[in-house]
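Service request form, structural biology core

Requester: graduate student, group of Dr. S.
Request type: structure prediction, single chain
Budget code: on file
Notes: please return the result as structure tokens.

Sequence provided:
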Amino acid sequence: FSVREKKKMKRRLQIKASWHSVSSNSQPGRGLVALDEALTLLRLQSSMKESDEKNWNFCFMSVGTPFELEFSEIVHEAYERLNKPKTMITVLGSGTIGGGRELEFEPCISILAG
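Core staff response, request fulfilled:
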């Protein structure tokens, strides 16, 4: 391969991933408030302005069981407000991990996006 072709191949192989992890909590029955807080923290962590739209490739969201009754609404709202990520995985669980915190049996939402 020529030097030019090698450089071109090297550029294709370089993957720049920027990952952000946040966690928020609120009161039971206020899942959209917790989601709004998590999305605000995500925007701040990724240095985005409120008017910016980022196309996330991957998003993993964990929702605490106290938000069980709001789960589908939270997932739909997150998908829309995250600008429809290419891949989004959401789980409902008794514990969430994000933003350097582990919360168990609390009304919380954590998001990992990149």
